[in-house]
Design a protein that fits this description.
Order of helices and strands of chain A: HHHEEHHHHHHHHHHHHHHHHHH
Oligomer: heterodimer
Number of domains of chain A: 1
Number of strands of chain B: 7
Helix content of chain B: 55-70%
Structural class of chain A: mainly alpha
Structural class of chain B: mainly alpha
Number of strands of chain A: 2
Distance between the termini of chain A: 14 Å
Strand content of chain B: under 5%
Number of helices of chain A: 21
Helix content of chain A: over 70%
Shape of chain A: globular
Largest sheet of chain A: 2 strands, antiparallel
Radius of gyration of chain A: 22 Å
Radius of gyration of chain B: 29 Å
Strand order of the largest sheet of chain A: 1-2
Chain lengths: 513, 734
Amino acid sequence: MNTILLQAISNPDVNLQAILPETIVAVTGIIVMLYDVFAPKQKNVTTVISLIGLAIAAYFMYSMWGGGPTTSWNGMIANDPLRISFSLVLLFVAAVTILTSTVWSERETVPVGEYHALLLFATFGSMFMASGNDFVIIFLGLETLSIATYVMAGLRKSDLKSNESAMKYFILGSFASAFLLYGMALIYGATGTTNVALIAERIASPTFPGLLLMGGAMLVIGFGFKVATVPFHVWTPDVYEGAPSPVTGFMAAGPKAAAFASFIRVFVIGFPLIGGATAAGYLHESWVTALAVMAMLTMTVGNISAIVQNNVKRMLAYSSISHAGYAMVGFVGAGVAKTPEVRDAAIAAVAFYLLTYAVTNLGAFSIISLVGQKNDRRTEFEDYNGIGFKSPVIAFSLSLFMLSLLGLPMTAGFIGKVLVFRPALEAGSVMLTTMVVVAVVNTAISAYYYLRLIVVMFFRERTTDWSEPKMPVGVAAVLLITIIGVFYFGLFSGSWIEKFVTPSAPTAVQAAK
Amino acid sequence: MTENNLLSLIIFAPLAGAVINWLIGGKLKNELFSSVVACGTVAISTIVAFYIAFVAGGGAFHAEKPVLDHLWTWIQVGGFRADFGLGMDRLSAVYACFVTFVGFLIHVFATGYMHGDKGFYRFFAFLNLFMFSMLTLVLADNFLLMFVGWEGVGLCSYLLIGYYIKKDEAREAAKKAFVMNRIGDWGVLIGVFLIFTMTGSISFYDKVVGGETVPSALDAIAKMAADPFTAGVIFAGGITSAAVLLFIGATGKSAQIPLFTWLPDAMAGPTPVSALIHAATMVTAGVYMVVRCNGIYQNAPTAMFIVAIIGCATAVFAATIGLAQNDIKKVLAYSTVSQLGYMFLACGIGAFVAAIFHVMTHAFFKALLFLGSGSVIHGMHHEQDMRRMGNLRKHMPVTFWTMVTGWLAICGVPIFAGFFSKDEILYRTFATKASASVATLGGVPVNMVLWGVGLATAVLTAVYMTRLMWMTFFGAERFHEELHEVEAYASVHADDDHAAHGDDDDEEEHHHALPADFKPHESPWNMTVPLMVLAVLSTLGGLVGIPYALSGGAVDNYFEHALEPVIVKKVEHSETKEVKHFLASEPKTEAVSEPSKAAEHTEHDPAELATERTLAVVSVILALAGIGIGIAMFGKTPLRKMPKILEDKWRIDEFYNGYIVDPLTNLSRDFLWKGFDLGVVDGLVNGVGALVAALGGTVRRIQVGFVRSYAAFILCGALVVIGYFVYYGLKLIR
């Protein structure tokens, strides 16, 4: 043990190339922050800088594809499809969020430069959650992400709701981080390592089997909070409703995807089923069952609650809860996969699902932001009454996003759902099949509230005046990207799914040896 | 496997036309522009379709293997694969050619018919979109893409029936058509699921895509053992179930019992639409699907039996209704339903080629009759009631003479197209050997009953068509007469017209009181030329399928032999008898001299030939008799009162409304809406609201909940999760 440690210290496995995209995002964040200090009046310069930084990072991230699964920094950073696919989703989310928030530049006094810097730091943290192959890195990433997001939720300093949102998010988030950290500590106690790959080897013969299960439970709670699964979802509606709309869109897509990335890495790769090992067997069985039950609860509670909402942002908050449930269906499917190929395909399915969800949801939130006006005043269903033919661009794109969220064929949402449901269905166990049935029934339930918004827009009479919001270039670009994305992923998803799976077998285990 | 990327041009040209007309035509509002775009794109499709079918690489119509065009892989998930790929085999070739060609003529006709309409560009955009969907349907190389086309034509049909959106009748009819089609669509969808479950493929053809072999689902099922002929297999989830489910879809799309009532109502759309969609092309999609799946049906005798019975029943049933209608388009609509019944009868008794032959000839003469009626309606300033016509042959000679050919064709007078196809169906019914159809019913073989009913329908057809001709083109001019009888049908109809009348110019104008100096006029050239072309086709189009017996042995049935490879051979002598197509000019002696083809000619057994000839004579006599009866009954008294029950269409609509629609409406309103929506959902909403309000009244709150209660909630959840894991941990200790 000591010799390994000593070796690691004296001969550090430095590989800057491996964390180049993360570094670029961080450096861009620092540049943006510094620029903002010297030119606080600017509105669009930091937008451009951030976008360029994200694009370069995405380019380097993309170019890592096909290199084969490796690890670097003494096994702390993984370089596998799981990381790359999720990281690209995260970079995409960040870029679109920046474009969406150009709605502020005209009508609100939000500190734009600060906001961009925070967003980039949050993205930096979330990318480390995707690439972290070690509890320490994952936790660091999570905290970097969380702290930046807490501040972003409270960006409208003069708005009571925004402040409340940040406060609630911070308190409850710290509460959950405590569980997560405690869980990590317990797992370390049981196995003597914080490296996910080594944990996967050692759970077969843990030092303290009891701690293993306890730690697993704590991790479920901690990650469960971050991805907002029932019963750890209670913070979501309030926080989402209070936060500025572009931030809400970001929170529903970015941090959630990042949390899923580490959640999957820790559980699917770190806690596999090992033949003959009792403790590992119990751990696997218990987390799969727990997550399956939570997935069913999450979908159902999310959808039922969404039905009764009168506020569009709140409705989308509950909708995002139910979507986390759908994604967990694929997650559990990956957990029970019998071969590495099936497992990787299932992980890729979850990544793809979150990508489709991000595309659709960001599109929807860009319109919510646009319609919302200053301080998100117009976010009730009533505010959308009868705008259908008065503002056709807004109404038709929002309808499209609703249909994609619902999962109508030809849209991205449909392919995403098909992909995540499949691995669970093919596992052939009664519980997982039940889970898929629940998911499909839930999809049907969700039609009620998604279609309701369309009905409201096109078939209700409007009683108040409607002033069509001016559409900034940034938002127009977002709409274009997301609408094309919805159709593109709905029709030509094949090549991307393949990309997300290759290179096959990201066996972090062998690389860490 | 042949690839030809031109195939996609056939479907995408009309799509481009639709987009251009919608985006640019809508701005320009120029009729010439819209006409040129719409007709031009369909003309491109037509040329390409004929080129691929007959010229490129010997022509798909003569090739052994289908011409394929893989555009992209749509969905590939595990074992499931759906391509966006097109394929043209001989069956698709026939369909593609007549759909594009007849479609083109109807487009040209419509430029005249729709002249002056405010929504000119919108009409042609929809019409082009329809062509796109229809061609996707017939050229798709797998079930899923076919279903996309299937839904697409349904949508276009809905849009075009409801084209006169200000008219209640049109809106109701559009809705009815859509709902009835949806009822059928679930059958198709579940049928396709079932086929996928059985075979693991949804492709029509064996093909190789990106190095991966995709087997044909149809061949796979054709190779399976046939289901027995019992009623139980319908619900067994096997081949028969799939066949029956697909047929349910076909009854919706092709207006068969019990889902036929939408088609007559669909006549509320503009007449070119009726001609294109509701006579020539879309409604025959059901026949296409059944013939495409003939491998499935041949293994499902029970399903074949059902198809035959339904087809035959629809044929005679619709014909009786057609006898008593007064709206010229309604007569033709019921006639269409009846003729579609013939096609399904042919499918049901195993004469798939005959069905397709009838589809093709029917497309010619029915499109002609509809366009002719459109020309009449146009000339009569949108009067559709035949009781107010009469003696039009004097005013509209071209329309009259072209209509005459259509009339003779549908009645089954020799040389005209309808004769050959209808006679073929009747002969095949008489001579069928399909196991199901020769079952006996009270001592009489079923196929004899079917044949008898088919003959009776032929007579009825001749009668009602003669009635139509006489009411419209002969007798006294009744343009200015008031209708005396106050009948249920007429009054309802008149109400619709009055409601519609006086609205703005967006709709077809109805003139109940024609001006005193009114004279019907002949239509412009762009309406009469398509009529003439179709008249030629209705006259001569049947000659491609002239059977061996009737040509005196000079010509073998070209059409039938060309299409034979499409039909799966269940009888196992196909190994020795490699089917080759016979060019019409191929001398008979050559054929006999080749030993491999000798087997072919044993089919032409002299006794059978004699039967076929006798039956042909019988049907000619019956057709002429029908015409005679028609003239005798309506020659002098065109306004003869018809039985009320027929005029009321056997009161099927009332039956559906009373027993299905109303109960469903009541259930939805009283239980689902008032009970569930208002009671449960709204109750929930209001309950939550009340709870929140109550909280707000007593405690000062920031929003809805408190952080501490949230934290407590999370803690409870956490305890449950930990408890669950600990439960496993305890097991470990024990």
